[in-house]
Amino acid sequence: MELFSVETFLFFFLLSLYLYYNFNTSKKKPIKKQGPKIYPIVGVLPEFLKNRHRFLDWTFEILSYFRTNTVVYWIPGKGHGIITANPSNVEHMLKTNFENYPKGNRFITLLEDFLGHGIFNSDGELWKLQRKTASYEFNTKSLRNFVMENVTVEINTRLLPILIKASETQQVLDFQDILERFAFDNICKLAFNVDPTCLSVDGTTTSAAEFMRAFEDATMLSSGRFLYAFPFLSKVKKFLNIGSERRLKESIKIVHEFADNIIRSRTDQNIGKEEDLLSRFSLNKENSPEFLRDIVISFILAGRDTTSSALSWFFWLLSSKPNVEQNILKELEKIRVRNSKNIGETYSYDELRDMHYLHAAISEALRLYPPVPVDTKACLNNDIMPDGTFVGKGWEVTYHMYGMARMESIWGKNCFEFLPERWIENGVCKQESPFRFPVFQAGPRICLGKDMAYIQMKSIAASVIERFEMEVKSKGKAPEHLLALTLRMKGGLPVRKVITEGCCDVCKLHQEDVVHALFLCPTLQPIWRSRAHWNHSTLQACSSFTDIFELIFAGNRKPDLFAAVLWILWNSRNNLCLGKPALSLGQVVDFAQDRILERASCSVGFYQPRPHQVAALVRDAYKFNFDGAIFAEKGLAGLGVVIRNDHGLIMASLTQQLPLPGSVIEVEVLAAWKALELTLELGFDNITLEGDSEVLINSLAKGGNSLAHYGHLIADIRMLMARFSLFGLSHVRRNCNTLAHALARRASSTPDLSIWMEEIPPDLNFVYMADLSGLS
């Protein structure tokens, strides 16, 4: 109790001195300008305290009262300042008179503990140096390709598996948290070539989780310094190391240690040889470790918080606008059909650029909920704004992007609506003035990563929207926002992801049944209408699938090809339901014709092997070992096959690189299929197929139809097995299959297909010798 009394006395004593000082030393009367009510001594402090929890909406309401959308304020200890939502004033600050409006000492000082002197917390020559260095990296084509590759792998190997798992268990996810972790991993890979594995199906690593919490606390507490009613209190708390300043210090320590570890790990790897952002800054030997740390933290802030904030608000807005979601789905369908793609196939850079409506929808979300809702500059010299407002030397000038989005004078009477169509002109997303829409800044400080941000956001949005329906718990009422350095949702964005059911998985426009899935789906029209012997208009009149079959077989309309196409489509639809890659529509008929020809060649029992170097003796036995390997970080897989005679000598070996299939077992299946294909090519007849996948070997041995999504591959392998005079299956442990596994791993650095006759790659000789000694 005694300690409380001393602290209370100290607080009011300091407060009295502060008010007395302002009252007695301020001989000039406050300048009377339009704005909130300014009280004697305390200025707008009472109004500020009353509305601090709703700062953005409160300041917008004030701005909207005035014709110029600009107000002047005065706060004790801070002095005068203005807030504006006028595009002409924004252009004046960010472009016309740019040199007169730097970040300013107060802004830099308040964030210096956290951001140091990184690009987002610096002025003058230091800012120009960082801007110039970063611009080299952001303007390279290699960065664009790296962004595309990295985002694709992250989506397919981390984001989608998490959402699918949650959908299957009806788990409620904090989608804001998921997006923040995705963005954190992504920016670390792009900027520093480090993967912290913050987003993972198996859970976040301890160090990454600790960093995430500390980073969130540091951003919140640092931005809280701007909202102190009495600014000197933060300095007192920092000096005494108490309260929020103590928590801020602890959080910053964790953040700094994490950044330092990134720098140390890259230094140990000879950092200068890489081409990422950190490497470019490290080439200047005058840059201290502290400066490099500031760079790391600044770009994590830019890459993690902005895109995740934008997408969180985008998905929340989308949840209450089903018509917008349907328009996006229609656009995605058109792009897939035009490029002969199915759901699950990666969109290219050009295809993402063609998503004009999705681009407009994301831009509209950015307009209503800008990731950085307000931005403040300092005035170096007296100035007059284009709207006539006087700005004194040393005043703070804030432009209010959140308020600008809600001004009828800028966006019309429907400015509060989520309306992507306002961005569409002649079917294309139009460019808006950066001074009406300064979400990515404007002028010399315009965001370098704007294009990269749109690539990421459109890739994520397209992948999620076409696979899932999203149930948002806070649908309707806008979530309460947290005013930190970026605009985040208080309590996150709780959602339940549901894999789309009931409607067609491909067109997402009609109820799905067997007839629709295999024949009536609009996406299949190029197949059926391209064949004169399948009259689409006649078949469309059939009321059941049985009627279609009767019409096809009775009219002798290529029933074998029709059946083959249906079988391939059926397997493809199963793959799509599971989010697996499938044949594009343009490949279906050709693939079906190939299977028919293959079946015809099997039915006459004739096979003509290609010329080969190995003179295989029919009476000898040969063993074919196969294995697969996954390189998730690259989105690739590898196949390895080795053929040996009964003395263990090499007859042939193979390695092949291919895009990452949907599961480990699929890689094993493809490896077995490749082993048998090579066997037939080389003319061997008495063979044993050996692998370390017990599931696959048992599946091949049992016979019957496989209900797995890779069942069509199992059927193909069994068909190949039937061509041999003598055929055996064998399961071994991994340590007895090392050579095939080494060949599969080698595919990581060997593009496409490589075959060695009567030898193996020289770099694997030591594996072969060890394996041979084990055999003997």
UniProtKB/TrEMBL annotation:
The keyword Oxidoreductase applies. GO terms for molecular function: heme binding; iron ion binding; monooxygenase activity; nucleic acid binding; oxidoreductase activity, acting on paired donors, with incorporation or reduction of molecular oxygen; RNA-DNA hybrid ribonuclease activity. Heme binds at C447. SUPFAM superfamilies: Cytochrome P450 (SSF48264), Ribonuclease H-like (SSF53098). Its cofactor is heme. Pfam families: p450, RVT_3. Residues 625-747 form the RNase H type-1 domain. Keywords: Heme, Iron, Metal-binding, Monooxygenase, Oxidoreductase. The keyword Cytoplasm does not apply. It comes from the Eukaryota. Belongs to the cytochrome P450 family. This is RNase H type-1 domain-containing protein. It comes from Lithocarpus litseifolius.
